[in-house]
Amino acid sequence: MTAEREILLEAKNLRKEFGGLVAVDDVSVAIYARTLHSIIGPNGAGKTTLFNLLSGMMNPSRGQVFYQGKDITGLAPHRRAHLGIGRSFQITNIFPNLTVLENVRLAAQAIGKDNFRMLHGADSFPAYEEKAREVLGRVGLNGRESHFAQTLPHGDKRKLELGIMLASDPQLLLLDEPTAGMSSEQVPALLDIIRAIMADGDKTIVLVEHRMDMVMSISDRITVMHQGQVLAEGTPHEIATNQTVQSAYLGALYGDLAKELEDNVG
Ligand SMILES: Nc1ncnc2c1ncn2[C@@H]1O[C@H](COP(=O)(O)OP(=O)(O)OP(=O)(O)O)[C@@H](O)[C@H]1O
Ligand SMILES: [Mg+2]
After folding, report:
1. Fewer CB atoms inside 10 Å of the end CB: C or N, the chain?
2. Which ligand 1 atom is at minimum distance from the Cα of 51?
3. Which pTM does this prediction carry?
4. Ligand 1 mean position to 48 CA, how many Å?
5. What superfamily in CATH does domain 1-84+171-266 come from?
6. CB of 179 sitting under 6 A from ligand 1
């Protein structure tokens, strides 16, 4: 955890109901700038719904979302994207019939950051393309620029998804299970990419992930959700040694968290 305690994103008393089901129940969480904050919890805990509320894909039944101190509750997803909130939309966001490079270039163009706005038509093309190539290098897809997205192996599709997100230079990245569907051998490469993004020093990541070894080794803070509520929040060490978290369901689901921590943090 860095010395700065600037809150970048804050959820206050968020609630989301689907009919009679309360998917997110009075959730308050503060995400500090330039930290990696993971959200964990069993299936159906409300993690993705919370992401939908943070990214603007859904509006809360109650509660508020603040970004850099500004109330953004009710703001549309693309408006939040322009403020610097990036969210992975799973593989559906990839254009399968376009190349890897075209996918990322389009994402850069779609946001059209201010430094590109002065450029018009053909002039802007090289700038976006350069941006796209730089991003592809960061996500480990150099050499794959001209491949059609649909021909990529699954692990590379997840990297492309990250590249599409990074193309818009978001300050905050909301990553919902970036390793989903990946084999264990593919995970370290993704972990390295996430570490490199954090090493840049200006990004903040909120990560939903089921792989506890990964969560324990890269998180600054962890929020544990269960049945729509926040069960615990703290550093990896605090979470791993938290009795409530360790007992019953979470212990059974995630195994020995303290052991994971020992293995991964030392
Ligand atoms: N659009 C929706 N309509 C109705 N119910 C929903 C909707 N989205 C989620 N739910 C329900 O809300 C609860 C929380 O779901 P959510 O997807 O947020 O959980 P999750 O923590 O992301 O789970 P997982 O780890 O399986 O991804 C679940 O009971 C789910 O069935
Ligand atoms: Mg989910």
Report:
1. C
2. 18
3. 0.90
4. 7
5. P-loop containing nucleotide triphosphate hydrolases (3.40.50.300)
6. no
